[in-house]
Design goal:
Elements (H helix, E strand, L loop, with lengths): L11 E4 L7 E4 L1 H5 L1 H12 L9 E5 L2 H13 L2 E7 L7 E8 L2 E8 L8 E9 L3 H12 L3 E10 L5 H7 L4 E6 L4
Parallel strand pairs: 3-4, 3-7, 7-8, 8-9
Antiparallel strand pairs: 1-2, 4-6, 5-6
Helix pairs in contact: 2-3
């Protein structure tokens, strides 16, 4: 991939995946390029320089890749929020709506302590359902979310407004029109 100064240039679009009419924004090409991946992590961290953050929460599954790298850079802990049945310990659950049905996210019930300051990260903000479920889980454990950071926003799907209506600060690196 050529040198770039824009994270968006490292993201490939796959037409008609997983269904006809969908323009899938694939961040694996961003992750595979060391310059692009470093750029994305640095840009996701930049707004929080000097802020107190206790833990980074990553949403399954690409949020784990981003969240782990960001937590490492901040020297803080990482907390995964996973699909139902994937975590081995005691959990709390939150259901949410997808475009095609219902799903459930879980987090360990001892992963976040009351008052801890949390940065939530994921690769893509679409309708906001997954992130909203993650926010509810963190808040139920007493965490305070400083911001939700994403590589990509699909503004036509309205997820940013959903999160902002929940009182969240939202930071995105790039946008793609359509779905």
């Amino acid at each position: 991939m050529p040198k770039s100064h824009n994270v968006r240039d490292y993201i490939r679009t796959i037409v008609d995946f997983p269904h006809e009419g969908i323009m899938f924004r694939d961040v694996t090409t961003l992750f595979a390029d060391p310059r692009g991946f470093r750029m994305a992590i640095d840009q996701m961290l930049h707004p929080y320089a000097g802020e107190r953050i206790d833990k980074v929460v990553g949403l399954e599954a690409r949020g784990f890749i981003l969240g782990g790298a960001i937590a490492h850079q901040l020297s803080v802990g990482f907390v995964p929020i996973r699909k139902k049945g994937k975590l081995p310990g005691a959990t709390i659950s939150q259901d949410y709506t997808l475009e095609y049905g219902q799903a459930i996210m879980e987090v360990h019930d001892d992963a976040i302590q009351p008052g801890e300051v949390i940065l939530m990260v994921d690769d893509l903000l679409a309708t906001g359902g997954t992130a909203a479920a993650g926010i509810k889980l963190v808040e139920r454990l007493g965490g305070k979310i400083i911001s939700c950071a994403f590589v990509i926003d699909l503004p036509d799907l309205g997820g940013r407004k959903v999160l902002e209506d929940m009182g969240m600060d939202v930071h995105v690196l790039c946008e793609f029109e359509g779905d």
